[in-house]
Design a protein that fits this description.
Number of helices: 3
Number of strands: 0
Low-confidence stretches: none
Shape: flat
Distance between the termini: 48 Å
Largest sheet: none
Radius of gyration: 14 Å
């Protein structure tokens, strides 16, 4: 039962951090909920590592996690050929 609760808390953390990371950049981001969760979990992991290396504990890790998730979303945009405000080419979008 603890494993299920842990997985649910991971998904909730991922969706919150990922959604805030997507909101930080202007323009549409064509990602599903699964991709948003993965972006949020990646941002939370990187934010936790960075804050624990700098501060020795997890001070301000939520804000750093959102910043890292925003960076991941930006890298996804750049891989599609987009810019800071333009999401680039994705399936279903005509250029």
């Amino acid at each position: 039962m603890r494993l299920i609760a842990f997985l649910i808390s991971l998904a909730l953390t991922g969706i919150v951090v990922g959604a805030l990371g997507r909101l930080a950049l202007p323009g549409p981001d064509p990602m599903g909920i699964g991709q948003t969760i993965l972006v949020g979990l990646g941002g939370a992991f990187l934010g936790g590592v960075i804050t624990s290396l700098i501060a020795g504990r997890n001070a301000w890790s939520f804000l750093v996690a959102v910043a890292c998730a925003t960076g991941i979303v930006y890298l996804i945009r750049r891989s599609r050929g987009g810019t800071l405000t333009d999401p680039g080419a994705y399936p279903g979008r005509r250029r």
